[in-house]
Amino acid sequence: KLFFTDYGNAAKVERCDMDGMNRTWIVDSKIEQPTALALDLINKYVYWVDIYLDSVEVVDYQGRRRHTVIKSRQIRHLCGLAVFENYLYTVNSDNLSILQINRYNGTDVQALARLENAKEIRVYQKRTQTAVRSHACEVDPYGMPGGCSHICLLSSNYKARTCRCRTGFILGSDGRLCK
Does residue 143 share a domain with residue 112? Predict the structure, then answer.
């Protein structure tokens, strides 16, 4: 799945399949300007920062079990969000500090460091990487991902795929080759 935020006409957090199909709103109320988003891949939770409401909230992948992690002026102007173990990590764009927040109760807000021009944050650690199983976009014997001549996108599950073409090409009637 692909998760993303939008605060155009109606603010929301959404999800869709990797090929853009099955687009679903998972949060569309009591939300104003969702900017940063992070996933807890193990427990299947979506965390987001709402910079208008000065809050960090969480919901499960289906849009249920929503609650506020923290709502405070102490966390104004956050950009970027990452989850690792018991904490959320984010960047305060006012003073460029990296903040650590307890993701279960919003306590333990600590400034860890300052970085010039920081706008995003990521945690790279072996335990945050999910195991890869065989999938529909694996390279075939001819070197084509999922049998697609240009782009292979996973669809509703890891066994289904959709082929797409680069700009200037159109997908042939076979649904695999671009012309």
Answer: no
Same domain, 100 and 169: no
> Residue 143: which region, alpha, beta or left (left: phi > 0; alpha: psi -120 to 50)?
left
Q: What is the pLDDT of residues 112-134, one digit of tens each?
A: 888 887 778 888 877 666 677 78
Closest by alpha carbon to 164, among 139, 147, 142? 147
DSSP characters for 28-56?
Answer: -SS-S-EEEEEEETTTTEEEEEETTTTEE
Interval 18-51: pLDDT, tens: 899 999 999 999 999 998 999 998 899 999 999 9
Residue 24: its H or E element: strand 24-27
What's the pLDDT score for residue 129? 65
Report how far residue 77's alpha carbon sits from residue 64's, in angstroms, rounded to the nearest whole number: 26
Helix/strand/coil for 127? helix
State the CATH number of the domain containing residue 153. Answer: 2.10.25.10
Q: In angstroms, what CA-CA distances link 38 with 43, 60, 105? A: 12, 12, 17
Is residue 61 located within the same domain as residue 105? yes
